[in-house]
Amino acid sequence: MSFNTFGLMFRVTTFGESHGPAIGCVIDGCPPGLEISPQEIKEELERRATGRSRHTSQRREQDDVQIVSGWFDGRATGTPIALLIENTDARSRDYEQIKRQFRPGHADYTYWKKYGIRDYRGGGRSSARETTMRVAAGALARKWLRLEFGVEIQGWLAQLGPLRTDEVMDWDSIEGNPFFCPHPGMVPKLEEFMDALRKSGDSVGARVNVIARNVPAGLGAPVYGKLDADLASAMMSINAAKGVEIGAGFASVSQQGTEHRDEMTKEGFLTNHAGGILGGISSGQDVVVSTAFKPTSSLRLPCRGLDIDGEEVEIVTKGRHDPCVGIRATPIVEAMMALVLMDHVLRHRAQSG
Amino acid sequence: MSFNTFGLMFRVTTFGESHGPAIGCVIDGCPPGLEISPQEIKEELERRATGRSRHTSQRREQDDVQIVSGWFDGRATGTPIALLIENTDARSRDYEQIKRQFRPGHADYTYWKKYGIRDYRGGGRSSARETTMRVAAGALARKWLRLEFGVEIQGWLAQLGPLRTDEVMDWDSIEGNPFFCPHPGMVPKLEEFMDALRKSGDSVGARVNVIARNVPAGLGAPVYGKLDADLASAMMSINAAKGVEIGAGFASVSQQGTEHRDEMTKEGFLTNHAGGILGGISSGQDVVVSTAFKPTSSLRLPCRGLDIDGEEVEIVTKGRHDPCVGIRATPIVEAMMALVLMDHVLRHRAQSG
Amino acid sequence: MSFNTFGLMFRVTTFGESHGPAIGCVIDGCPPGLEISPQEIKEELERRATGRSRHTSQRREQDDVQIVSGWFDGRATGTPIALLIENTDARSRDYEQIKRQFRPGHADYTYWKKYGIRDYRGGGRSSARETTMRVAAGALARKWLRLEFGVEIQGWLAQLGPLRTDEVMDWDSIEGNPFFCPHPGMVPKLEEFMDALRKSGDSVGARVNVIARNVPAGLGAPVYGKLDADLASAMMSINAAKGVEIGAGFASVSQQGTEHRDEMTKEGFLTNHAGGILGGISSGQDVVVSTAFKPTSSLRLPCRGLDIDGEEVEIVTKGRHDPCVGIRATPIVEAMMALVLMDHVLRHRAQSG
Amino acid sequence: MSFNTFGLMFRVTTFGESHGPAIGCVIDGCPPGLEISPQEIKEELERRATGRSRHTSQRREQDDVQIVSGWFDGRATGTPIALLIENTDARSRDYEQIKRQFRPGHADYTYWKKYGIRDYRGGGRSSARETTMRVAAGALARKWLRLEFGVEIQGWLAQLGPLRTDEVMDWDSIEGNPFFCPHPGMVPKLEEFMDALRKSGDSVGARVNVIARNVPAGLGAPVYGKLDADLASAMMSINAAKGVEIGAGFASVSQQGTEHRDEMTKEGFLTNHAGGILGGISSGQDVVVSTAFKPTSSLRLPCRGLDIDGEEVEIVTKGRHDPCVGIRATPIVEAMMALVLMDHVLRHRAQSG
Fold first, then answer.
1. Chain B, 164-193: which have a CB under 8 Å from a chain C CB?
2. Alpha carbon distances (Å) from A298 to A43, A98, A291, B140
3. Any idea which of A240-249, A274-283, C37-46, D312-321 has the lowest mean pLDDT?
4. Are C5 and B3 within 8 A, CB to CB?
5. Is D118 near chain A, with CB under 8 Å?
């Protein structure tokens, strides 16, 4: 779908700016009967929360979510579910400078070119704050998928700047460190790296992987509704995403067919270079996606830019910014996986024989 | 949008199987007045044609396109434009074997899991033959974008198996070789590599890049209708695609913010790591996308697979297959770029202030 | 949905002009496995065929439908089904006059205002010829609904100009006369009326009713996806439609609540003023819809109009035109009922608990 | 579009139940720059407010609307605009009876059949309270259409039970009486009629007309995106609507073509039986629509019904209910007209030549 609505049968429409009174979403198409509580949603939100460690932005939001509609006696009723979270830590400060400047690498310039007007406070609509509602909506999808099919979704940090962490050493360790790093031995290195980075004033990119287990075969659709196409769109729609891979991804470029094709025996597939998707349709294997996030552009280190009069200015960004937005991306990537799978399960139910 | 329809305002619905009587598409939303001829469409089709060189499948289709509707006195009328191409070289042969087997790495298995029935002849709907109509529809979008904004779209082979060809040495050479290789000195090496590969019976992946110049700023939309999200979906919907990058893509993971952010002066942006898109909206810079294609799975080299009874069988694929589908992907990638930009231009016109 | 596509889950996209080489449609979302033959589709088409009697247009089309795709071994495969019918009786004649004139009551003027270009031959896209594909697509929906739920859909002529025929005296007689009149005693009067009308050169409106039996309860959705809202849209999208009623329709304006509300007992509803829909959702009662069709505007009796230069001209329409388009509307109304119900069954399957 | 979202380019998604904490909507696609204030929205809401007179429900809501997002410095920014209104007069009372009963003529039964769960308090999602957000969203569309094209939309009560009021005697009087009656001499009769009706405990239907002036020619689209089809859907989606007419509507059934067709001279159209729409596209004439509303089913007069165990019960509905919902329908009908026109203006801008 498009614009501020995601999904066709499980539709999530998000709204809200970083420094507005609240952010929220409307979930239309949730199967009736699903039991859900604000607390369950909040638990997911806390995983992405800013201020989780010294390595992320220090903005601290309560993220108390209110279920405004579509919910009765603790269960979804089938009517639209609106979720609302107040913005409580949107600091009021002087925005005079940012108001007139376009930060390089940021959406300031393009929003202004598109709309001719922008809510410049804290990035407005283009702020990472928006991803909060993806995680909130994803919590419902995730729970339903788990109850209905036993789908389990787990993301992890696969690379932080130059440090590769993609080999999963210990699944259980992922939730135990602020990086969602699956390799306990790497955590001190990541901390050291981040401390030095923060000191330098610079930022760095990251890669986040996600796996979905127990995905039923048959999800997806030819030709433009392919499961992998929708996953690519979903991941690329996250702030700062610059690349998406399914299964072997770019590594498949230098693979040979005899290596890439996943052979089948009665015991199942022998490998999973496909990432669980063939011809745009899930095969029953684990669905595996990798997403690249660029380094934050909002830095206190000065750079050359323009103001709204077209004059050249030196840009220095103050405020609270993550030196690596990818650190907090894991729950968001998981949420997008859940939303895509949920939507495709409902679509598949509609059009089965 | 979804399923077999692509786009929201410039909607392309494709239909047809590899070995059915014809393939076709319906283009709904083409601005009235556009001059177009079957010959112009055919010229684009010839660029992707099978049988273009010895390195691609030897299926030879005339690809004579008929404009069935929405076209009067040589111009689009604003009503739906149906295009139709007969399948003339769909060899009738014995499909008894393939009928009962699932080729690893192919959509055979997943179509069967999804639908419980499949047109197994030549891959049916999942055949690369479907991409013909993407190129046909793309021809209209491309022409309109060029006339209206001077948009120029050019793709090229960036990597063939282990051979990197991404550095563009000579733009004019791209159309002069069967690989769309922008590096004339590499062409003999590519030929040598492909000859050896074909002899071996194996296949290999490829990476194809595409650039769009003169794209107006302001295309795209937050949050789920981002231009890069739609490009990712478009490219990933092409057969065999496994990864998509915008601008610096996965390289941005190890970049620092001071390197990645594209500074601006009065002369314009100093670099283009963003690939022409910021916050999901075009900046006016060149839009740059890279797509990974996996190696073909249809090989004459045997492998282990299952049949429809769940029995293990040795699979050997006969027939005419490209040892590297990526070689012919360049016009398809260009077409998808054109379709996405076209759709977003129309969307932007709708919602401007 | 919109434009030339109808439906969300069972999507029908039609294309083609009255005097182009062919008309056709693409059906996306048909459940795989449905057995269907071109002959079955043709049988439905013959019910709406022009030239069925002396009371309708004398254009005679073979309406041999070709199933181009999505169909294998006599069954739907789940991929898009394209249907194609050649225009064989589109008489080539001099269109110089109509080319420059806007026929009052016709879409000539508005197409020209919208698109600035029009295929004036035989009404182009706005010709009733387009409804052929609605009936063709409806044939599939109708068959599936009958097999799956036993849904039976029957339309009838309820009024022809001043002659009311809405009371169904004999269901079996409907198919036995060229008017779809359910009141055998009225048929001679209708014939007499039509003969006089044709002689006079004038035209007249009609009202067509349709009933769907065995519709499962639960179809439809709040708030903008109501079953009655979609039926209203479907019927109003038919050429010449000017009004739609569900159940008691406009008669409910002067009803009192005690009369209108349909009481329930263990044996079921006692009345059906609701027309089978409550709160936008089917109740399990018969779904009943009535549609008003205006009189044809294409008359040989002259009237005042404008040409494309804005000059006043006397307009006389030659050619073969129905003096009452409503006579042939019954199969079209049935088809739209089938398409709406089909779409809603699939939507309901997606979003059940 | 569908479900709880209305429109394609100007999309309104509403949420909220009658007795939940709040109702709201998200407007996606509003052109940036539109000046709007909560007070302007509230003024429209007051026109539909319950408790406007003794003839409507006595529920009294403040309807203070909060603009949560997409709004900066008093203007729309192009990002989604969320509106929120708290439910302040949702009386907490004993719902034990209604909880177990299906009120005839009401959505109780169908929601339960569809979802298996329902928020029975005050009708939940099927309450007329939902229409508040249509009026709120309509206020933005209305203002933009007026500023951009001078479009003026006016509705009026055309019939109240047996009393016809469709002849407009005095446009200025419409806003001056609680019925939106355009015929000052009829107002005392309406009051008398309503007083007697209220006393009797029964209810009655109504017909509401609406006219839109200065609608530009060219809005609408063939074949399923016709302006009249979308208007029919929009009106039929309002609670209690049972019929929709465009222009002459059902009267066109007994008209002859020479009467119905609207002749044109240099001075313009001589009549407007078409209701401003030809071939699904606006002609530049006034767009005229008439909608039938059924009598309220919620009565204190007992009737026969079922409970959730399938047992027969006598149903008596207490609480505050309008004896004629049509009385308050005028602003809602106007809002739907505005939403449809707005959406089609944006769609037309996208696809012009």
1. none
2. 29, 11, 21, 40
3. D312-321
4. no
5. yes
